[in-house]
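Incident log, support desk, overnight shift.

02:14 A customer reports that sequence design results differ from what the structure should imply. Their input is reproduced verbatim below. On-call engineer (initials T.W.) acknowledged and began investigating.
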């Protein structure tokens, strides 16, 4: 064995500022975030496949977060987001 790699299994938070367009094509800037946790039984597989948590976040999680957030924002008009932010969040 050359080294020991520790993998954090506590809850992690990724957040990002992004620009998107509403359903009526108005530009918005939003801060989106996701809380996630590594399943202990899958931690070794995650390390083998991605090389660690940072690689998993940058290659898999962050692009999906951006894509999902932009898709969700585009379903609403700007006035709907202002009036009912909670509906856009869900």
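02:41 Re-run completed on a clean worker. Output:
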């Amino acid at each position: 064995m050359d080294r020991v790699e520790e993998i954090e299994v506590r809850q992690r938070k990724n957040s990002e500022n992004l620009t998107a367009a509403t359903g009526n094509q108005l530009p918005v800037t939003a801060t989106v975030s996701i809380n996630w946790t590594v399943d202990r039984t899958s931690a070794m597989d995650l390390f083998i496949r991605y090389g660690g948590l940072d690689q998993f976040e940058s290659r898999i999680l962050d692009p999906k977060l951006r894509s999902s957030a932009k898709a969700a924002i585009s379903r609403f008009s700007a006035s709907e987001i202002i009036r009912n932010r909670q509906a856009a969040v869900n």
